[in-house]
Specification:
The protein is mostly beta strands. The chain has a single domain (2-497), classed as Maltoporin, Chain A. It is 9% helix and 63% strand. The strands form 2 sheets. It has an 18-stranded antiparallel barrel. Strands 4-9-10 form a 3-stranded antiparallel sheet, with no helix packed on it.
Amino acid sequence: MRRILTFLTIISIGSPHVMATDTVKAHTEHRALWTTLDRGAMMNPAVHGGLFCSSYSELTLSMARRRETEAFVLENGDGSNDYGVKVNTFLRLTDRTAVWGEAGYTSGQRMNVTWCSTSDYALLKPYVLADTLGGNTEGERYTFSGGYATRIDRISLGGEMTFRAEQEYRDTDPRMRGIVSDLTLRGGAALALSGYSLGAGLEANIYRQTNSVSFYDEEGVIPEYQMTGLGTEYARFSGDKRSIYYDGGGASLVLNLAPDKGKGMNADCNLSRRHYERKLADYNALPLTKLYVEGIDANVGWRHKGAERMAIYGQAKYTRKTGDENVCGDSYGGSYPVIATLTMYHDKELTTAVGAMYGKGKWNATLRGGYRSEDEEYVYPERRMKTSHVFGTMDVQWLDLNVSPLRLSIDAHAAYSSCLTHKVVMPYANMKEAFTTMIRHKADYAKADYTTLSAKVRADYDVRDEMFGLFVEAGGTYTHCTTSERMWGVSLSVGMVF
């Protein structure tokens, strides 16, 4: 990782083929709130390569801290400390060709994690290994990505690779360890047609995690549960079966339409399908469960980019999770045959929103409002948790555009989410006490209202005739929940721009 960071820094600073860049223009183009409109289009590397006219690179040292008076999500803990280094670069080699890349390392800690002994909870839930004791976990993450795009006449072609390697562990009982590798490859093409760019891209992903829990104190051994959703477990293989792994991956199709000069209609759509299979390492890779994740993420809008920047847009995102459990027969020769597969878990999430953005000179602002719902169900015995919320967000940004050694920028964010409906069906009378407590906690926070305020301030100082700069950025966030609990976070970053 150290060599990757050094390599990206050297090519960013020293490449003789990089087109000359105005510092203020590059800073504005790459950091303006306007660029958030293109997040969906960036999934197509052929389009990504044409989004920016200027080169821009940053080397960043960062720290971030989060604390919650009570864990909003038990599986994520009630706090975290993260320290990282990252270099990212976008190089405009010619008016037709661009390369970009990122490399980073993060070391951190999560506090008081319970009901999850598996890394990547958000990705693999509900099929995780879990216990009631938990504790603090340590973690390390290495990330790397690189992309290339070029234009040949009216056709643009691009490719990109991203890779993540991560380990999370605990050095006190229960001693969990999760080791993750996650590789994604993307390829895409775009055709310039009548003032628009029409693009399509494909994405392939390969995922693997090895996961285990051990105990050094034999008198302190507690059960590890193979969770199957909404407070259920695969009882037959829970208890002392503490070594598993996950194999997964999938593919995505990306379609996008964008105006060549930032004026006109724009649309993008991402169709994805993933699967993650949990296997027992101790029983000849016995497959226990398989999670299927299917999704569609679509955006459509209109934008105008000139002296005044205006955009209106609509968004819709739908994710469906389906979980299969394998029924195993009697052991024979150390192996368990799979005699049946039952689809027992369903989870449907829907988010729809409309928004508007306006910018002029140094100012950018966006308003967004929408509806979010989730319907999570376990088939038998019947369990269900269904919620719906309305939400609104506002973002305001001020960028100093003056050509001077010292420049400031300010970003502010406010969000509110209010619960509309909430329904819980649970066989509490037949549940273990610990599982009942966990589910009640989840239900309380699922139906809560949330208010979030955050802000960050950044100062840039240009040196060496505007070919090199230093920056410092400080930020803070505060969230209040109607369960009378709170979350706060602070962050600090220093680095250089080149």
